[in-house]
Amino acid sequence: MTKFIIHCSVALLLILLGASLCPAAEDMGIITGSDKGTYYQFGLDLQKLVKPTGVNLTVHTSKGSIENIFAVYQRPGVQLGIVQSWICPSYRAAC
After folding, report:
1. Does 85 map to a domain?
2. In the chain, at which residue ranges do the beta strands (DSSP E only) sit?
3. pLDDT tens across 6-44, in order?
4. Which of 70, 72, 66, 71 is closest to 84 using CA atoms?
5. pLDDT in the model for residue 12
6. Residue 95 maps to a domain
């Protein structure tokens, strides 16, 4: 749980830092998980947090980590994805 919080904090810091360097509004997308899950709510909270910095973050639902990996690579408008850490070693070709 502590690693998750650290990873989320680092991701948030990078998003805020990147947003503060860009003077114009930027459209970004994040793919999360089920609309009833914690990751989706995290995406919505992140959306509210970055809005004042000029980032228009669109939160997309998904069926899970594997879909999120492929969406970041293949889906237009999705630059960020939430992935459980144990997925990447299992799918090294995708990561």
Report:
1. yes
2. 26-31, 55-60, 80-81
3. 666 666 665 665 555 555 558 999 999 999 999 999 999
4. 66
5. 62
6. no
Alpha carbon 20 to chain centroid distance?
Answer: 18
DSSP reduced 3-state for 71: helix
Report phi then psi at 56, rounded to 5. -95, 95
Domain containing 83 — which CATH number? 3.40.190.10
Position 42 in a domain: yes
pLDDT at 78: 93
Q: How far apart are CA 95 and CA 70, in angstroms?
A: 9
**Contact between 46 and 81 (Cβ < 8 Å):** no
DSSP state of 57: E
Number of structural domains the chain divides into:
1
Q: Is the confidence at residue 3, as pLDDT, over 90?
A: no
Range of the domain at 76: 2-90
